[in-house]
Design brief:
By secondary structure, this protein is an alpha/beta fold. It is built from 11 helices and 8 strands. α3 runs parallel beside α4 and α9 packs across α10. It is globular. The N and C termini lie far apart (40 Å).
């Protein structure tokens, strides 16, 4: 809030939405436009991939960013995007808007620099509440997510992926979808050797002996996430 003539007004905010689903982009834009007076939004920009999203942010330095975490074959690439935006502009307010409800992913997003995290099936009122909190520089997690993340941090959760880095989570997700090392390297714009090294690291962290067991862990995690969403 800022003071003008003795009255409090909402600081004007430029917003960037990054998502590769047209329906999501359109829905978020409508929510923002309807709430623009209360949220003090002056501009709304859109991007459909992480490259154009980062370029847009680099050029215009938006105060508020709403971003998905997964883009086509680049699952969880939004984690790296969040880190890069924070490195470029300290104090940027980022809200992760994702279908992933795994506490490991939520924790990674917050650890990468997102101030808030909302699921894509959240009601409009929750999305607006999250936007208002993040815009004010305050953290926001839905209660159902906050509880799981809290259990993860206190060690009472049996999450097997908690020790993995954001990059390793990306690679594991792509492995579960049948992608080869070469395809994963191309999708993530990293070297073939980097993928091999990451898989070796994951085998050690997860206590599995070979690639087949690693893929089994990845597929099992995907099934568990699907059960949570039922």
């Amino acid at each position: 809030m800022v003071q003008q003539g003795g009255k409090e007004t909402v600081a004007l905010t430029s917003v960037l939405i990054i998502d590769d689903h047209p329906v999501v982009l359109g829905g978020l834009r409508r929510i923002l436009e309807d709430a623009s007076a209360n949220l003090g939004i002056r501009q709304i920009h859109e991007a459909t991939d992480i490259v154009s999203g980062y370029r847009n942010f680099h050029k215009l330095r938006h105060e508020l960013v709403i971003t998905d975490l997964s883009f086509q074959d680049r699952d969880l690439a939004g984690l790296s995007l969040i880190r890069r935006m924070n490195a470029l502009q300290a104090g940027v307010r980022i809200l992760a808007f994702s279908m992933h409800d795994d506490p490991v992913v939520v924790s990674r997003a917050v650890g990468s620099g997102a101030l808030g995290y909302v699921l894509k099936d959240a009601p409009t009122a929750t999305i607006i509440e999250a936007l208002r909190s993040v815009q004010a520089g305050q953290g926001y997690l839905e209660h159902r997510l906050a509880t799981r993340v809290a259990m993860l941090s206190t060690g009472r959760s049996s999450q097997p992926l908690g020790a993995l880095s954001a990059r390793e989570l990306q690679i594991l997700s792509l492995l579960s979808r049948g992608k080869s090392y070469r395809v994963i390297a191309d999708n993530l714009s990293v070297s073939y050797r980097t993928v091999i090294s990451a898989c070796s690291s994951m085998r050690q962290k997860l206590g599995v002996q070979n690639l087949a067991e690693l893929i089994h862990v990845a597929v099992s995690e995907n099934k568990r996430r699907a059960q949570w969403r039922l």
